[in-house]
Amino acid sequence: MKRLWSLVSLAALSFACSPASSSSTSDDATTNAASSAPTTAPEITIVPTTTTLPTVQPGTYDTATDLADFFAQFGGEEAFGQPAAAAVTTYLGAEDALRAGDPAAADELLDALWRKYPVGDPKWFNTPYSPRGAHLGSPTAYYGLRMLTEVTDQLLAGDAAEPEHIRLTVVLVGCSEGTQATTEEELDAGTGDRVQLTLDESLNANADEWFDQATWTFRQYVSAITGGQLTVDLGIERLPDLCVPVATTRDGVVSSAGMTDDASVWDAMPAEVTAATDMWWVLYPSVVPAARALADTQFVTDGMGLHPSGAPVFTSDDLWVVRKPAQLGEGEYTSVERRTYFAQWMQTEFFHHLFRAYPEFELEVEGNDWFDLDNWPDDFVGVMEPDYFAEALHKRLLTADVPLSEKLQVPKQ
Questions:
Q1: Which of the residues 64, 285, 319, 355 could staple to 363 if both were Cys, CB 3.0 to 4.6 A apart?
Q2: In terms of DSSP bridges, do strands 164-180 and 230-251 run parallel, antiparallel, or are they unpaired?
Q3: Among candidates 398, 377, 399, 400, which has minimal Cα distance to 387?
Q4: Is 358 exposed, middle or buried (0-12, 13-18, 19+ CB in 10 A)?
Q5: Spatial CB neighbours of 208, under 8 Å, sequence gap ≥ 6
Q6: What is the Cα gyration radius of the chain?
Q7: How does pLDDT run across 271-323, given as a tens digit for each residue?
Q8: DSSP tag of 36
């Protein structure tokens, strides 16, 4: 029997947000086979538009200061060790270089790191999971480093045509209302207090900066894997008057706290936003219980769903971007953590969508199949989830009859 390194860490990360249907909170991806099966979306009329919607412009960051403050807050570089300290430093340096339009500098940084700590090297499995409450992904920055390498390689190849623009719209829902458990017994019974919750004020106030930090690497990665044929713009749509239904429940060992129906989100969406959007990230006020009795409970707060148009929908509560949940660490996210970890989360959820979109390759039949190396195709090389994604991309998806650049664009009438 083959053994998958760091399985416990990867399972813990996927537990927070796992593949979801378009209308309900998902179960744990390791136990929910139906969530990863191909989904047939209802039809929707896409209204053509010539409206130019505002986009979030890339920010610039004082990375050296941010990184120094981060290490000081969480016990210094010695609390992380190697290769973790080198990984996060390289990741942020390479991202900064790419933001500045210097892929050669990014390539130099990444190449030096990979020479010292190669892809799949056992040293990666020794990076700390959450030192003093910090969280940079597991292994530290590994997913994002592989993504930035794809970006750098594509840019240096220099063979991109004029790209088509697609849009990732972040939707900030103003209100959620439903049942919130206060005890283990209420969680098991699906009962609790009736609550009405509002969007986190700090998220609303810092949305442009925080979502630029959280999505930048992912958006460049989508461009890279389509050969530079797509550019992903970032927009933010606020629905302050919308109140979505939420609930807390437990099914066996899986505790969920999330939206029970997203139909009202699409009903409330302006037609020009729907027409312009090819990917969505919907956030709603968190219903994760604050009761002390449930403080250490790990909750699924949604994951990857499907818009009626067939577009992928990342779904999370608002606090997912504000603070680390119990299974990931402690305290509010720093800019260093937000820039580093969310590349991993978005790639993981995105590949659930890609595997659903290309069922002919049977790359995810039961849900997170790659957690067991015995399920890996014989020609795949690697040991971890991001290795599986890279192999799937280059050995299957890029050979598909329908290219990624077409698959990721919602047809416009």
A1: 355
A2: parallel
A3: 377
A4: buried
A5: 56, 59, 236
A6: 20
A7: 999 999 999 999 999 999 999 999 999 999 989 999 999 999 999 999 999 99
A8: G
